[in-house]
């Protein structure tokens, strides 16, 4: 069964068609890169998947729950890391996580254990008592990732999560999220950077609101480096 399924999803801003009949299905234990140049429609798709936007055309199904008919159940299985950081810099890492847990109605019983486990997975266990303001950008992002796992979602959505990070921090996050996918999570990672995509990843290429390619990266790119393939298909002049 698909953990995340999108069927014929379309969206327009007035006359501007931002998404045009987008369809794909992702199973568990998948790292899927959603690659598209600026303006391709990635943010619009993320907004529809998280119900910030609603479309009357098409369907989104998370862990078997239809986003339009059962939004609370669908959203309960979705973890999200947005492009813009959403943490309180004055609180410690643990306080930020407790605050998020309270907002989501997670039971207090066993919460610290959940927080420790989530931080451990991201290599952040020893930073639980540090103020978010004192963390570097990469560690802040990892904290947001740990937080997105607290309610044990089956699908994790990340919208260009490496924006503003240096190369080492980017590589660390890319690695951690691949580990999460290997352990069973269905991950959708949006990016416009081909070097964040691995050959064995599931790749969706979005261009001008349409899916250009859907499959395993190494099959899609053939003999070409992915960056060359991507540039040739999206007509971006380097
Ligand atoms: N509020 C809006 N009103 C009108 N057009 C919009 C609006 N938001 C986005 N668009 C247009 O819809 C298309 C898709 O935009 P979207 O932001 O989803 O792309 P993106 O792939 O996320 O790009 P980026 O990487 O630059 O964030 C673009 O042509 C954009 O100009």
Automatic annotation (TrEMBL):
Any Pfam family matching the protein: ABC_tran
InterPro entries named among the record's database cross-references: AAA+_ATPase, ABC_transporter-like_ATP-bd, ABC_transporter_ATP-binding, ABC_transprt_ATP-bd_su_PQQ, P-loop_NTPase
Domain of life (superkingdom): Bacteria
Single GO MF descriptor: ATP binding
Keywords assigned by UniProt, alphabetized: ATP-binding, Nodulation, Nucleotide-binding, Transport
Domain (ABC transporter): residue spans on this chain: 4-233
Family: Belongs to the ABC transporter superfamily.
Protein's UniProt name: Putative ABC transporter ATP-binding protein YbhF
Organismal lineage: Bacteria, Pseudomonadati, Pseudomonadota, Alphaproteobacteria, Rhodobacterales
Gene name tied to this protein: ybhF
């Amino acid at each position: 069964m698909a953990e995340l399924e999108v069927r014929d999803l379309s969206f327009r801003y007035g006359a501007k068609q931002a998404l045009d009949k987008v369809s794909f299905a992702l199973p568990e234990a998948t790292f899927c890169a959603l690659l598209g140049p600026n303006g391709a429609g990635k943010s619009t798709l993320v907004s529809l998947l998280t119900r910030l936007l609603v479309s009357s055309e098409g369907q989104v199904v998370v862990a078997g729950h239809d986003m339009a008919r059962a939004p609370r159940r669908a959203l309960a299985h979705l973890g999200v890391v947005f492009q813009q950081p959403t943490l309180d810099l004055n609180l410690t890492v643990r306080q930020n996580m407790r605050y998020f847990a309270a907002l989501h109605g997670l039971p207090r019983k066993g919460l610290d254990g959940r927080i420790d486990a989530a931080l451990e997975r991201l290599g952040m266990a020893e930073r639980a008592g540090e103020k978010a303001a004192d963390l570097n950008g990469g560690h802040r992002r990892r904290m947001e990732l740990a937080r997105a796992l607290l309610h044990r979602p089956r699908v994790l959505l990340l919208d260009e999560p490496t924006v503003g990070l240096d190369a080492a921090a980017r590589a660390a996050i890319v690695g951690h999220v691949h580990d999460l996918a290997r352990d069973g999570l269905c991950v959708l990672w949006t990016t416009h950077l081909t070097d964040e995509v691995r050959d064995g990843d599931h790749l969706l290429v979005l261009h001008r609101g349409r899916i250009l390619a859907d499959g395993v990266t190494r099959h899609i790119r053939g003999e070409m480096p992915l960056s060359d393939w991507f540039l040739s298909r999206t007509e971006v002049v380097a």
